[in-house]
Specification:
With about 725 residues, the chain is an alpha/beta fold. It has helices spanning about 1-75, 80-100, 105-135, 135-145, 145-195, 195-260, 265-295, 310-325, 345-360, 425-435, 495-505, 520-530, 545-555, 570-580, 590-600, 625-640, 645-650, 650-670, 670-685, 690-700, 700-710, and strands at about 305, 330-335, 340-345, 370-375, 385-395, 440-445, 450-460, 490, 510-515, 535, 565, 585.
Length: about 725
């Protein structure tokens, strides 16, 4: 019995010990975790202080940036960073002081930092005031004393010291936190051993955490591999585009030049075959690149007011000749209730319809091809509609088992068709992807040997209150570079054929063309000749086009010289970047018309020569000059009252009305220079040529001066 009592006491003691250990383990764990949380809070506080110190330094650097920009240019808008930094600096220093309440050394350093910051702000203000009152040389002399640099060096040294001290404290805190974490793990383990279930659960959670970490690591590695693969793909596409488009530029360009020289019908047929084959190859290249860009997710939509009627007119213009040659009836039907203007990506919708109608014409030998555009429901006063587009043909049709395949890249409707009838298999894949990007869908219905109908459905299309501003189509035809004012043009390209092509384009014109083969020559020619325009390739030896552009822009007096990039790249990100860097953009292969229109944005149009007038009989008054003198007063009134609003507004309707008014004055006053100017202004307005319109409007005061010069009465 005594043994039983002893055993019971032992069990009680064991239970008490177990309970004591459990309570002690839980208490120790709670205390350890509390200390750990405190250490984490300290670490966060240290990081916040370091960030605040860095913010003070960043504000001072912003202030320097604003002062520097104003000193160089004298433009007040450059002072915005300086003013913003000066206003925020006291608040940032005050916030930093509040964070440093428990750190004596930090408070001392902050006193020094506040003094140095005020000194630096005063120095910057002195330079700004000097620039305003005494000009750039005096401000530059003040900067040359190096006082500001010395002050900033002291500020940077102090900031580095403050950050370094915080980092030391942070490192010590990390070690302490690690020790506390070890103790927390130990106490947690002891507490866990007292509860088997809790221990197993903790083990399970640890396994889950390790597995999650492993998966995250694998995902990160896969992301790195995917990014590397994407970079390689982009590099390959850029290289392929450049290497293929460069010779294509020569083929299509020289073909266009030869077309105006060859008269023999057989040679003309040969030349047409060459051009057709080259354009087919270029279309293949464009399809491959478009599909690659879509799969890479770099294609962006740009909705704008779009008139479906304009797109239908464009489709009929593009395919009318081909359909006529095959005896097909090509029609476009638009519902009467279809709104005049819809918010759509005009370019991508055109691309979709060109692919669908192009296939329909290609695979239809007799019958018709019909394009139908209508809303699913009458628009009434709704701000959105569902747009339905159908392309129907009476062609060869598609087998039922191939209807899904045709929308996959490289899928063919019927592999048994002749090779010349198959194509790349990318057109319909592009149609599907672009339609889905616009939020729509595309389905197909077909009966072999009877025909095919593609149905596009694009929901939630916004009805635009703003009418579509139609873009003039790029006409392929003769252009006269002599319509542009005589100019000195520097052309730089490392490819000899490209240089010969541009030489042929300008042959017989009144322009002065100078050639270079690399970026170094581009810089030297531009510095020596001070040209009106520079046409610059990108990929060149010794110095590429972007580096050459930077050198040209850094040369005093050449900052405003227009530099047009002429490149074979077709990647969207490249085009976006180049359009921002350069004054203009021309993509190879280019046509004479494309080059002319780009140059027209930077060169004024030539005013036609005034016809020689017969001398008035001796003793009679020169009525023409008297009329022109009276006319100049009318023109000065227009110059003061109407011309500023027309030029600033840039509206095509107002410009057309202004041109008609000038045309009436010129015809009534028998003034050929005014008539010619009014006609040129009217062409720019009616053709929606924004650069040309701006150039013509800017030329109006010069035209008045020319008319006044001609209106001076002749000596008797």
């Amino acid at each position: 019995m005594r043994f039983g009592v002893l055993k019971s006491q032992f069990h009680s003691l064991l239970v008490a010990l177990w309970l004591t250990l459990s309570i002690a383990g839980v208490a120790m764990a709670a205390l350890t975790w509390q200390r750990l949380a405190h250490s984490v809070d300290e670490a966060v506080g240290l990081a916040t202080i370091n960030e605040a110190v860095g913010q003070v330094l960043a504000l001072l650097q912003d202030a320097e940036t604003g002062q520097r920009g104003f000193t160089i240019t004298g433009f007040p808008e450059y002072l915005e960073p300086y003013e913003a930094a000066r206003k925020r600096l006291p608040d940032e220093l005050q916030a930093l002081t509040e964070l440093a309440m428990n750190d004596l050394q930090l408070r001392r350093d902050l006193v020094d930092l506040r003094v140095l910051a005020e000194v630096r702000i005063n120095q910057l203000q002195e330079i700004i005031d000097t620039r305003k009152d005494m000009g750039f040389p005096a401000a530059a002399a003040l900067i040359g004393t190096h006082k500001g640099k010395e002050t900033m060096d002291r500020i940077r040294a102090l900031v580095t010291k403050m950050r370094g001290e915080r980092l030391k404290v942070f490192a010590a805190n990390v070690d302490r936190t690690r020790q506390q974490l070890d103790r927390a793990s130990l106490t947690s383990l002891v507490a866990g051993l007292l509860g088997v279930g809790a221990g197993f659960f903790a083990f399970y959670l640890a396994r889950v955490g390790f597995e999650h970490e492993r998966r995250e690591r694998e995902l990160a590695e896969a992301k790195v591999r995917a990014e590397h693969s994407s970079e390689q793909k982009s590099s390959f596409l850029a290289n392929m585009s450049h290497e293929i488009r460069t010779p294509m530029n020569s083929i299509l360009g020289f073909t266009e030049l030869l077309a105006s020289d060859i008269r023999d019908p057989r040679q003309q047929r040969y030349l047409l075959s060459i051009r057709t084959a080259a354009e087919s190859l270029l279309q293949l290249i464009n399809d491959v690149l478009d599909m690659s860009k879509i799969e890479a997710g770099v294609v962006e939509l740009h909705p704008e007011p779009t008139d479906p009627r304009e797109i239908c007119d464009f489709i009929q213009t593009v395919f009318a000749e081909q359909a006529t040659k095959k005896g097909l009836n090509l029609t476009c039907e638009l519902a009467g209730e279809l709104p005049r203007s819809l918010l759509l990506d005009r370019t991508r919708l055109r691309q979709v319809l060109v692919n669908l109608v192009g296939n329909a014409v290609k695979f239809t030998e007799r019958g018709f091809v019909r394009l139908t555009v209508r809303p699913e429901q009458p628009a009434d006063r709704s701000s959105r509609i569902t747009l339905l587009v159908e392309v129907e043909d009476t062609g060869v049709g598609i087998p039922q088992d191939r209807l899904d395949v045709i929308f996959k890249p490289f899928g063919q409707a019927d592999a048994r068709r002749p090779q010349e009838k198959q194509g790349t298999g990318l057109g319909l894949a592009i149609v599907k992807r672009l339609t889905e990007m616009m939020g729509g869908s595309v389905v197909v219905a077909s009966v072999p040997e009877q025909g095919t109908t593609f149905h596009l459905r694009i929901p939630n299309v916004t009805v635009s209150a703003r009418l579509s501003v139609g873009r003039p189509s790029v006409q392929e035809g003769a252009v006269d570079f002599n319509e542009l004012a005589p100019a000195t043009i520097v052309v730089v390209d490392d490819n000899e054929m490209n240089r010969q092509l541009i030489a042929g384009v300008f042959e017989g014109s009144h322009h002065r063309i100078h050639f270079g083969a690399n970026g170094l020559e581009a810089v030297s020619l531009t510095e020596a000749l001070r040209p009106d325009v520079v046409l610059l390739d990108i990929r060149m030896p010794h110095m590429d086009g972007q580096e050459a552009l930077a050198k040209i822009r850094a040369t005093p007096g050449l900052e405003m010289v227009p530099v047009i990039v002429v490149t074979a790249s077709s990647l969207m990100e490249d085009e976006h970047q180049l359009r921002q860097q350069f004054s203009g953009y021309v993509q190879k292969p280019f046509t004479r018309r494309a080059l002319f229109e780009e140059l027209a944005g930077f060169l004024q149009r030539c005013a036609p020569r005034m016809p020689e007038q017969e001398s008035p009989p001796a003793g009679s008054k020169d009525l023409r000059t008297l009329d022109w003198a009276d006319l100049s007063a009318e023109l000065h009134k227009l110059d003061a009252d109407e011309w500023p609003a027309v030029r600033e507004g840039g509206a095509f309707n107002e410009a057309r009305e202004f041109a008609r008014q000038l045309l009436g004055l010129g015809e009534h006053g028998n003034c050929p220079p005014l008539v010619a100017y009014a006609q040129a202004l009217q062409r720019s307005a009616e053709g929606y040529d924004v650069p040309g319109l701006e150039a013509e409007l800017a030329r109006f005061p010069q035209v008045i001066s020319e008319i006044e010069a001609r209106a001076v009465p002749l000596p008797s």
